[in-house]
Automatic annotation (TrEMBL):
Belongs to the ComB family. It is an enzyme of class 3 (hydrolase). PANTHER family: 2-PHOSPHOSULFOLACTATE PHOSPHATASE-RELATED (PTHR37311:SF1). HAMAP family: ComB. It comes from Siphonobacter aquaeclarae. Pfam families: 2-ph_phosp. Its cofactor is Mg(2+). It catalyses: (2R)-O-phospho-3-sulfolactate + H2O = (2R)-3-sulfolactate + phosphate. InterPro entries: ComB-like, ComB-like_sf. This is Probable 2-phosphosulfolactate phosphatase.
Length: 234
């Protein structure tokens, strides 16, 4: 039977065999929530890159560009790392180059997988429905924060495990831990993450509305997948 597992941080990805698995990359606050939102609002493609320099080079070639480091957008970019910045009709039909502290790095580390897909609470059921039809194992890769696990990505991993528990074998403790955490938290996710490190970080930066938005379930029927060096809508 196919299996589902969870990797709490890209630093632990080396422990997982992904060449016969679909990797679902998640960075709830806020990279993958931005990507799902962008595709829902008509973005044609997203090029995830690991470094600021790569993103600048793509902007110089004519792409729109979004960047974030430590929650802040460097000068000279077209978008920040808020999903609300992707709700702009001028980006519909365009391709956006993106680099973030954690999320895009996790994507670039996953390229050897059968497929790399983008997960968020915003597209949770659409993603779960697709994965049920696939023959491959699934690994949920949490972007975390600078190599460390974080609460919100782990909760998403648990939510996906919970929705797929009847279709996939849960054989490792990481998946079981994430699922049990989500089951405990699902009644009030905003309260559950209220004292988490990333929420505190965003509040210090004056970012509030993104948090509640990114915790909403099943807003969009969007399935971003990596094709070559670019994310596209499946």
């Amino acid at each position: 039977m196919k299996q589902i597992d969870v990797c709490f941080t890209p630093e632990l990805l080396y422990q997982h065999k992904i060449d016969n698995a679909i990797v679902v990359v998640v960075d709830i606050f806020r990279a993958t929530s931005c990507m799902v939102t962008g595709f829902a609002y008509g973005v044609e493609g997203i090029i995830p890159v690991a470094t600021i320099e790569e993103c600048v080079a793509l902007r110089e070639k004519g792409y729109f560009a979004a960047a974030e480091r430590n929650g802040v957008t460097p000068d000279g970019f077209d978008l920040d790392n808020s999903p609300f910045s992707y709700m702009n009709e001028k980006f519909a039909g365009s391709t956006i180059a993106v680099t973030t502290t954690n999320g895009t790095l996790a994507i670039t580390k996953s390229r050897s997988a059968v497929k790399v897909m983008i997960g968020a609470f915003l597209n949770l059921e659409a993603l779960a429905g697709y994965l049920r039809t696939q023959q491959y194992d699934v690994l949920v890769l949490c972007a975390g924060w600078k190599g460390k696990p974080n609460l919100e990505d782990t909760l998403f991993a648990g939510a996906l495990v919970d929705r797929l528990q009847n279709d996939f074998m849960i054989s490792e403790d990481a998946a079981l831990m994430a699922q049990r955490l989500y089951v405990q938290a699902q009644g009030n996710l905003p309260a559950f993450v209220a004292n988490s490190s990333h929420v505190r970080r965003l509040h210090r930066l004056g970012i509030h509305k993104d948090i509640s938005y990114c915790l909403q379930h099943d807003l969009y029927d969007v399935l971003p997948v990596l094709r070559g060096n670019q994310l596209v809508r499946m």
